[in-house]
Amino acid sequence: MTTADRDTALNLYDKLYARLTEHGQSSEIAALAVVEDYLDGKPRQRDKKTRLTGADRNLAFWSSHLVQAIPLESWKSKTFTLALSRYFTQERTANTALLAELASSAPEAICNAVRYSGLVLRQHSPRRSELDQLAASSPDIAELCRVLDIFDLAYRQRLAAVEMGKHMLDELLPFEMLIYASLYAFEHLVPHLPQLGADARTEETASAQEVWDAINDLLHWKLKTAPDSALAMTEDHIHASVAMHLAPFLFPSHSGMVARHDLREAFERLLLDQVELNSFISRSADAFSYDDAIRFVRCGDHLEIEVVDPDRRAAWWRDGAKLERLHGYWFYRALDEFVASGMAEAPMGRLENQAANQLAYIQAIRTRLRLTEAYGLEEFVTAESGARVNLFQALLSLELTSAFFQRDFLLTYVGHLERSGHCLQALRLMALEGLAGGFQNRFPLTWSDRAAKIANIVGWTVTPESPKGNPHMAAAILDFWTIDWGAVGRRLRSGESLLQPELLERPFIKQGQILVQLPWVVGIQNNSTAAINSLRRLGARRAEAQAETRRIEERLGQLLAEKGFRVAANWHPPIEGTDNPGEVDLICVREGVVIVMEVKSSYLRRSQRDAWLHATTTLRKAGQQLRRKIVAVRAALERTSDLTQLLGVAESSELGSIIGWIVDTSIECDHERFDGFLKVSLEEVLIALRDDRHLLNDPSRILERAKLGGALEATQAASRAMLYPGGFEASGFVEVIENGRVWEDVCA
User: Fold this and answer.
1) For the structural domain made of 545-743, what CATH number should be given?
2) What pTM, to 2 d.p., does this model score?
3) Residue from 186, 200, 247 nearest 523 by CA
C-alpha cells in the first residue's frame, strides 16, 4: 500500500462519520452506524477498481479519529465490545493509547472483548503482550492474564501431544489412516451404538461424534501435508496398502507381512490425544470465549466453572432438544405421506429386506420434505460435476446405502463379536463371508472404482420410466455425494480458505481412481443432517443457492396467504437520504396485524463457537436490517403507496402496530431478541401455520426403533393438541409464535 493509499484508507471511517453527521444524524447514532459498518466488513471497496482487504479495514478503523473520540463508556455496549474484539483478532495494527484509557475506565470491556476474540488460543499475538503491559495498572486485566496463562499451558501440552503423535504416523497415506480409523471404530464404537440396539455406554471412551470429529482433523492434516501422488490412488495402490496395513490383522500368517501393532497403537494414542485436544477447545477454550452463561474462576493454578446465567445455559440445551424433535417431526410427516400413498402395502425389494427398504424410503421422504419446505429446494439439484440430480433419488440412494451397511456390515459384525468375543476375529469372519458370497468387499472400509460403484447403485434408481434403473442418474447421484480429496488437498496446501468437509456430509471419498466408503459412518449417520449441510454448508456458493433462499420466502408467503394474510414479498422501499433499507422479504397483513419478516437460511451447526458467530454476524445484522425496514414499511403504510396497493390496504387506520420477526432456518438463539426483534426458527413458523405441533411429540421412539411397525404405532398414538381451538386468527398466530407455544409440551 502506497502512502497515498494509506492516507485514503485511514480516512474511510472518518469520512463516513462526517457524511452521516452532515445529514443530521447525532454523533452517537453516526458513531454506532460506522462501528456497525466495520463489523459488517464495510466498505469492501475504496473505489471502483480497488478492493479493500480485512487488514486495510482494520488499519483504517483503529487509526481513525473517530475511534479516539468515542466516549469510553460506549465501549461497554455489546456492539462496541464486538468491535473491540475485532482489534484483538488482528495482529497488524496497534492502538495502545485507546487500550490504556479503557484499562483504567472500562476494563470489563477489554476483558469481554478478549474473550470474544478467541485470543485464548492465539497467545503468540502481539495483542497478548499489550495485555501484559496493561496488567500493571488494572487488577481485572492482571487476573485475566493469569487465567490466559493457565489456558495457554493446558493448550500447549495437548497440542504437543498431538504433534508428537502425528510425527509417529508421518509414513501413513490418507487411505492408510482410514484403515486404522476403521479398526478403531469397529473395536470401540460399533459395539456400543444405540442404532444397533446396544445399551447405554458404560466404558470411558470417546463417543462416535467425537471420534468422527477427531478423524476429520487428522485427515485434514494428512490432506494438507500429503503430496498429490498420495491421493492419486489406483487399485494396485489400494491393494498394497491393504496388504501391509489391514490384511495382517485380519488374516495373520507366519509367512506373510507382520501386523503393524505399533502403528495401530500409535494411531489410537493420537486419536485419543486429538479427542482430548478437541474437547479442551470446545468445552474449555470455546466455552470461555463464547458462553456468556458461565465464567472461569481461577483457584490457584487451575480453573473452575461458575454458572452466572442458568437460563442462558439451559437455552443452549433446549435448542438442541428442539432440533432432535424437529428430526422426529419430519419423520412423522413422511410416515403420513408414505401411508397415504399406498406404498406401505407394496412390495419393496426382497422380502427379508422389506422393512429396511420401507424405512429407507420414509427417511428419504422425510429429508425431501424438509429440504423443499424449509430450505427451498426443488425436484432437481445440480451436482458439482454439473449433472442434474433428482433430489429424492439422491436421498433414497443414501438411505439405502446406510441400510445396506447397517445390515450387511455393522449388524453382521456385532453378531460375530458376540459369539467370538474378539474384534479382529469378528472382522475376519465378516470379511470371509464376503469372499465366500462372491468376492464381495466386507472389510471395515470399502473401495471400488467409479464404474463398479455406479453398477452397484443403479438398482436404486428404478422408476416407472426406468424399470431397470438409470445409469446416468446413478452417476449423477454418485457425483452429488462425492468429495474429491485430491482437490481438497490442493486447496488446503495452497492456503485457500474453504469450508472443511466433514465425514458425514459427503460419504463417497474420491482418491484418484478409487471411491472409498466407511460403513461405520454411513451406516449410522443422520442422513437428513448430511444432506442439509452438504447443500447449505459445503454448497453455500452453488448457483442455485440464491434461488432456493428466494423460494423459502415465496413458499412461506404462500402458506401465510392460505391463512388469509395479504402478503407482499420482496418489496423494495424507496431510498431516502443515506439510508437504504434494502429489500423486505415478507410483509403480511390480516385483521389489522402487520408482520414484517426477515428470512435467513443457513445450515445445521453443532458448536457454541459457530452458534456465537451466527448470532454476532448474521442475526445481529438481521436485527439492524429489520429495524430500518420496519421504519420504511410504516412510512409506506401511512400513505397511499405501491405497498398499500400490493397489500390491498386503503387506510392506515386499519392497521395496528407493526411486528418484526427474524425467521431463520437454524435453531440457534431461538426466541432471543436482536435489536429488539424476536428470532424464531422457520420450522416453528411452518408448524404454527400448519397447526400440527402434535407431530413433535415422542420422536425418540421412532429414532430408536429399527422396525417400521413401532413407528406406525407411535404415530397412531400421537394426540392432537390444537393451537387455535377457536379457529385461526392473526392475533392468535402472533401469540403462538411470541410465546413459543409450539414448544410448550416439548421443552417444558
Assistant:
1) 3.40.91
2) 0.90
3) 186
